[in-house]
Write a structure and sequence with these properties.
Double Clp-N motif; globular; 11% strand; three-stranded mixed beta sheet
């Protein structure tokens, strides 16, 4: 039995105003539904460590756990079992944490679909207080880079807001050559050229999540 088999799923920086219901606040980009789910899961992983900061490894874990059937195409089919092992190591996923996260994800699925993930703490009056999630400094840098190469925009009369996809975020993680995660991904057999083509010339125009 594969303990890691996924259930198929449909210093910190200061946040700005939320615009698209994502796990943490940003007014500089939108997310596709697929990436929003991954970001929500990433926030849950950070919460499991009692942290308010979502790390790059959390974000990559969210993409892996929620969207593996999609991103697996960028690796050779015969190497995917080994690649999954590398990703679990990079994302620090143990069998125990995996099962705890899946149970938590199932419990929160309805809530996250309509409201987004919220972490709570108890106030002195006994009431639960929302604890906002924030990207770590490294993750914020990755997301800002992804905004620059986003393959589509949500255009309004006032501005054009980049729509981030799983591919453009993954590509920016890989391009961050100073990080251990990037080097391990680059050595895992990831087809970076194909990933770049999909970012620059997507087969279909990405659409931002409306939830």
């Amino acid at each position: 039995m594969n303990l890691f088999r996924r259930k198929r799923a449909a210093g910190p920086v200061s946040p700005a105003a939320r615009t698209d219901g994502s796990a943490f606040k940003s007014d500089s980009h939108r997310l596709t539904l697929e990436l929003k789910r991954a970001e929500t899961f990433a926030a849950m992983l950070a919460s499991s460590r009692r942290s308010n900061a979502v790390e790059v490894s959390d974000y990559l874990a969210g993409m892996y756990l929620c969207n593996w059937d999609h991103i697996a195409q960028y690796w050779n089919e015969h190497d995917q079992e080994q690649v999954e092992s590398i990703l679990r190591e990079v994302c620090k996923i143990s069998p125990q944490r995996w099962h705890a996260w899946i149970e938590l994800y199932d419990q929160q699925k309805q809530q996250t679909e309509h409201q987004g993930w919220r972490r709570f703490r108890m106030g002195r009056d006994g009431q639960r207080r929302p604890m906002p999630m924030q990207p770590s400094r490294d993750l914020a840098t990755i997301l800002m880079q992804a905004e620059k190469i986003a393959p589509a925009y949500d255009r309004t009369p006032e501005r054009s807001i980049p729509i981030l996809t799983t591919e453009c975020v993954l590509l920016c993680i890989v391009r961050n050559l100073s990080s251990v995660i990037s080097r391990k991904l680059a050595l895992s057999g990831l087809d970076i050229a194909r990933l770049e083509r999909e970012v620059l010339m997507p087969r279909r125009r990405p659409r931002a999540s409306q939830t």
